[in-house]
C-alpha cells in the first residue's frame, strides 16, 4: 500500500494543481458572463411578470438593410402571432419593445471646431437595450417631440466643448442645428474596449440620421413574449428571411448548448460570408463568447484530470485492498482455527 501511495503521489499533486486551475477558470468564466450589459433587456422588461420574454437581435446585410417602414409590418405580424397564442398584456404593461440603429460618419461643428465622427442613429427604446451610464443630462427617446436632440459620449463632449456639463448646448451636424440632451460614458468592460475603436461619437434619432446620411437600419433589437422556446426567434426569422438577416436570441446567448456549439466551430467564427457588419456591441459579445469557449475547454481539461485520477486511484486502492485481503484473510482464518483448536485442547486436557 505504501508503494502504491508513493507511485500515485505525483498524480495527486497534479490533480490538486488542476483543481486550482479549474477554480481560476470558473471564476474568470463567471466574470466574463457579466462583462457586457447589453444582454439584460428581457429581464429588465419582464420585471416581476411571470411571463417568459426573449431578447432578439436582428442584423441585416449591408446590401439589404431594413427600412423604417418595415417596422409596422413586423410588429403587425408579432401582434397577430401573440393573439393566436392568446397572449395578452398585463394591466398597465405592453407586450414588446424594440430599438433600431444604424451608423455612419457625419461632420460635427462645435465650439472647438469641426470633425468627422461616427454617429449612431437610434430609434425606439435604444437605451433600454444599451443602458449607458449618464454623466449629465438625459437620454433621447422615441417620445421626444423633436428630432433635434443628440447624446454625446464623454470624449465627444470634451472634444467639442471642453467639458461634460453641456446639456442644452448646440452643435451643427451636416449644416443642421442640434441640441445636446446629455452625455454618456461608453462601456468600460474589457470586451467593448477591444470591439470599439471609432473614437469620439454621438447618438441621434434614427430619423434625423437617415435624413442627413441616407443610412438605413442595420440592427433591430426586440424584447417580446416567448410563448414557447423559439417562438420569438421563428417570427423574426420568417419575417426577415427575404433580407438574409441573422437572428440571434440574446436572452440565451450564454446557454451551455450555445457555448458548446461555439467551441466546435471556434475556427470558423472569424470568417464572415453573410455581408453583415456588426455594431460594436455585438462584436463585444462575440469577444466574450470567444473567451467563454476557451475557458469552457480549459475547465473540461482541468476538471477531467482530477476525476480520472480519482477513479484510477480508487480503482487501484480497491484492487490492492482486495489483493491484500485475499492474501491475508485465509491465513488469518487458518491461524484463528489453530488457536481455537489449541484452546479446546487445553480445556479438555488433551482428551
Concise summary:
With 351 residues, this protein is an alpha+beta fold.
Structure commentary:
The protein is built from ten helices and ten strands. It has 351 residues and is of the alpha+beta class. The chain has a domain at 41-252. The chain has a six-stranded mixed barrel with strand order 2-3-8-5-7-6. A hairpin with a 2-residue loop joins β2 and β3. α1 runs antiparallel to α10 (280-348), α3 (70-84) packs antiparallel against α8 and α9 packs across α10.
What are its keywords?
elongated, 10 helices, alpha+beta, 6-stranded mixed barrel
Topology:
Blueprint: H1 2-33, H2 41-46, E1 53-59, H3 70-84, E2 97-110, E3 113-124, H4 126-129, E4 133-137, E5 149-153, H5 154-161, E6 170-173, E7 176-185, H6 190-195, E8 201-205, H7 206-213, E9 219-225, H8 231-239, E10 246-249, H9 256-264, H10 280-348
Parallel strand pairs: 3-8, 5-7
Antiparallel strand pairs: 1-9, 1-10, 2-3, 2-6, 2-9, 4-7, 5-8, 6-7
Helix pairs in contact: 1-10, 3-8, 9-10
Largest sheet: 6 strands, mixed, barrel
Number of strands: 10
How much helicity do the residues have? 40-55%
Write the element-wise H/E pattern from the N-terminal end onward: HHEHEEHEEHEEHEHEHEHH
Ends: how far apart? Answer: 45 Å
Structural class: alpha+beta
Figure out the total of helices: 10
Shape: elongated
Strand order of the largest sheet: 2-3-8-5-7-6
Tell me the fraction of residues in β-strands, as a range: 15-25%
